[in-house]
Amino acid sequence: MSPPLGESVYEVFARKSRGDPLRHIGYVDAPGVELARVYAWKTYDEENWFEMCVVPRGAVIPVNRPEGPWARNLPKEGDER
Amino acid sequence: MSPYTEDELKAKIHGGYILESPEEMTPGYRKAIIVQLTVQADTELMSAPAYWLAARHAPSTNTQVSAHAIIQDELAHANIAYRLLEDMGVSKEHLVYGREPHEFKHPYGFDQPLDNWAELVVANGFFDRAGICLLGDVHRNTSYGPLKRALVKVDMEETFHLRHGEVWMRRLARAGGAATELLQRCVDWMFPMTIEWFGLPDGLKRHSGQLDYKLKGLTNDELRQLWMSSTVPLCEGLGLKAPAHYDEQKEEYVLEYPFPCQYDPEVKRWLFEDGEITWQAVFERWKGRGPMNERYVESVRRSRGAVGSWLN
Ligand SMILES: [Fe+2]
Ligand SMILES: [Fe+2]
């Protein structure tokens, strides 16, 4: 199998128009922030988004749910992050 | 580990429960959704090279743009489905780059060459419509939240692919002469190809769990009927002969040829005259894959090894 290209997951959030909520619309795999922005913009082009942003998956900290794709980011016992 | 037994989860799902993470899945659920998503992802992925090779036949720069926009959508759809699988612990790397071409799970229709502009637009009119029937049903019914949300984009874009197909089919049908003849030839091989795509009739269907877990809502025969209910009137309206009609007595569409039957991919012709064959024979043909299988798979991944090795 070919070597992986060093990609990690970025969550994609977007707002359709002014006044709309920022919604989680999907995710892309990218080797860094710059390409994550490009891939997100090119992948989720079904709307003329007013605003779009990407967040590294590792930066999303769950507050009340101990499972799902962000669970691994939960602070460990005694962790002072 | 799922907090539920298989029966508990099925009961909850039928009460409207939506799963939000792979941790909630039972082994049965996980297995069923992995099969479903792999078929979905592979189908989207293999439609891209099929349409890409056909897009060379686009008659203008405008049509080049619309054809390639569709290909771009399909690759994004594939990527989204593989990404969902990755969150279930299935390696996208392996699925896309680690399998033999014949191990992909897309339908036999996407192993066939699309040799001219008419074939491309009928593929949009027929195959993309099949996609809408299948994925629209998943969108309305799936018990997996992340998939339901991902399909908002997919459904929206597939509707555009279908419209592209219909508008161009209408233009070619109106032209008459060679254009209409070519269009009819497309219908002759691509209509039965799509019918077969929906798989085993309900009476013969092996139990897959997809309905128990509400991964979809309609059965194979219901989906086949749904597809015919828009495709047959479309063809009739364009003066094209589709091998099916609505039976008032039965209150459903009926096929006018032996189903299933054998296909000769070299000449793109269904062997109606040889009569009905078994589904076992159909599965063998599918397993043997069609003429473009290796070329299509290679065309989406040929540069991976080289670029990957430069970067490592
Ligand atoms: Fe698609
Ligand atoms: Fe499509």
Please provide a written account of the structure:
The complex is a heterodimer of chains A (81) and B (312). Chain A has one helix spanning 33-43, and strands at residues 8-15, 23-30, 51-56. With 81 residues, chain A is α+β, with helices and mostly antiparallel strands. Chain A has a single domain (8-73), classed as Ubiquitin-like (UB roll). Chain A has a three-stranded antiparallel beta sheet with strand order 2-1-3, covered by helices on one side. The longest helix of chain A is centred in the middle third of the chain and has 11 residues, at 33-43. Chain A is flat. Chain B has one domain (6-311): Ferritin, core subunit, four-helix bundle (Ferritin), CATH 1.20.1260.10. In chain B, the strands form two sheets. In chain B, strands 1-2 form a two-stranded antiparallel sheet. A two-stranded antiparallel ribbon of chain B has the order 3-4. In chain B, α3 (61-86) packs antiparallel against α6. Chain B is globular, with a radius of gyration of 20 Å. The two termini of chain B are 36 Å apart. Chains A and B meet through β2 of A and α3, α4, α6 and α11 of B. One fe (ii) ion (FE2) is lined by residues 44, 73-74, 77, 131, 154, 158 of chain B.
If strands are numbered along the chain, what order do they take across the biggest sheet of chain B?
A: 1-2
Cα gyration radius of chain A (Å): 15 Å
Determine the mean pLDDT of chain B.
95
Termini separation of chain B: 36 Å
CATH class of chain B: Mainly Alpha
- The N- and C-terminal alpha carbons of chain A lie at a distance of 38 Å
Low-confidence stretches of chain A: none
Oligomer: heterodimer
Return the structural class of chain B: mainly alpha
Q: Strand count, sense and closure of the main sheet of chain B?
A: 2 strands, antiparallel
By secondary-structure content and strand pairing, the structural class of chain A works out as alpha+beta
Strand order of the largest sheet of chain A: 2-1-3
Proportion of beta-strand residues of chain A: 25-35%
